[in-house]
Design brief:
By secondary structure, the chain is an alpha/beta fold. 25% of the residues lie in helices and 28% in strands. Strands 1, 4, 5, 6, 7, 10, 11 and 12 form an eight-stranded mixed beta sheet that branches. A five-stranded mixed beta sheet has the order 16-13-19-17-18. Strands 2-3 form a two-stranded antiparallel ribbon. The longest helix has 14 residues.
């Protein structure tokens, strides 16, 4: 072992990234970018630990991909995410990298490791070849360097350096501010940072996502409750009763949510919106679906279509199909033609036939967001 732990920062919101998916969830073949980067770096050296930071809404989903790493919830800033990760580090040295630098060559990692004992923080840099203007004055470009990640630090010194309210954009700035020693090593133009999205065309090591499609099913059942409004697919249905439920009881939307989560392997509606949580008491199911759709796109998918079967003796569904389709089209971000609704009765058998409730079964198909075509 190298007595070095690796931290891969993947908890950002990608607010500057001009794509539907978050950058860390862009698919490279079938792997999300964070896994592609981590697996690649793990072949370059025998790290004692590899720690991945995740957005809190994506942590449990991220854990599905590999048991080889330690996952921690990131913070609101890069600095907070590093501090959270350092709680898991017990090695003398720690290397911190950003998932945005996806094609770091092995030579950069070797340069950092070879110098780990020679300063408090080892930093890869690039020289500047263009003329540089600073405050309208031309300055000597030989005195200007571009700092990259990953950076390798003495763990105890970095931990102490981050105990401040000052926000630093990289590890070396924090270490330098407490008079720590810095050593610069040669970086690489291949370690190009992915920030806005247009850089993707200049990062040749990233393959396009696979053409796989993924299907999930969902089923939900609710009994009737008197003196409550009925909602199906986000549409209010004229009726003297609604659905007995912790939320508004929209059985159709709940079924669609489970189908979408099933398609991307993210569990079920109860894991996202537990009925033991008072904040979801009487919740508008349209808002719950909006949150799930946002999650689906954030983690690198697009919705292709949904097909639903409503099992109900009462109320009659056919008069409301088009309204439900229009509502779902807006919520799912797909055209109405890709939403199909079928309705059948219980032929007066069982709880459905006795008009005691409604069941809905949904099938959803999704695919990877194809960033190569955007």
């Amino acid at each position: 072992m190298t007595d070095v732990s690796l931290i891969v920062l993947c908890a950002g919101n990608s607010t500057r990234f001009e794509h539907k998916a978050k950058k860390q969830w862009l698919r490279i073949d079938n792997d999300p970018l964070w896994l592609f980067v981590t697996n690649k770096l793990s072949t370059y050296a025998k790290f004692d630990k590899i720690i991945i930071t995740s957005h809190q809404n994506e942590l449990s989903y991220m854990e599905n991909f590999s048991d080889d790493f330690i996952y921690v919830t990131g913070g609101n800033t890069r600095q907070e995410s590093i501090s959270n990760s350092l709680k898991e580090v017990n090695t003398k040295y720690v290397m911190v990298t950003d998932v945005a630098r996806s094609c770091i060559p092995q030579t950069v990692i070797e340069n950092l490791l070879n110098e780990k004992e020679n300063a408090d923080c080892i930093v890869p840099i690039l020289n500047v070849s263009d003329t540089v203007i600073y405050h309208d004055e031309t300055i000597d470009r030989d005195n200007v360097k571009l700092i990259q990640t990953p950076q390798l630090s003495n763990t105890s010194i970095l931990r102490k350096a981050l105990e401040t309210n000052v926000e630093y954009t990289d590890d070396s700035s924090a270490v330098k501010a407490m008079n720590g020693t810095i050593k610069y090593v040669q970086g690489s133009i291949e370690s190009k940072k992915l920030t806005f999205g247009d850089e993707l065309k200049d990062i040749p090591c990233l393959n396009a996502p696979s053409n796989n499609f993924f299907t999930g099913t969902g089923i939900d059942i609710h009994e009737f409750q008197d003196n409550k409004k009925m909602y199906l697919g986000g549409v209010e249905i004229p009726c003297e009763y609604g659905f007995k439920a912790h939320s508004d009881g929209d059985v159709l939307i709940h079924s669609v949510i489970d189908a979408l989560l099933g398609a991307c392997g993210a569990g079920d509606i109860g894991e996202f919106f537990p009925d033991t949580d008072p904040k979801y008491k009487g919740a508008d199911s349209k808002l719950l679906l909006e949150e799930i759709v946002s999650f689906i796109y954030n983690v690198g998918y697009e919705i292709v279509n949904v097909d639903l079967t409503v099992l109900a003796q009462q109320p009659k569904i056919n008069p409301h199909k088009q309204d439900i389709k229009r509502c779902l089209s807006k919520l799912l971000g797909i055209q109405k033609q890709f939403i199909n609704i079928k309705a059948t009765t219980g032929e007066k058998m069982g709880f459905i036939g006795r008009s005691e409730g409604v069941a809905v079964q949904s099938i959803a198909t999704i695919k990877y967001y194809n960033w190569k075509q955007k």
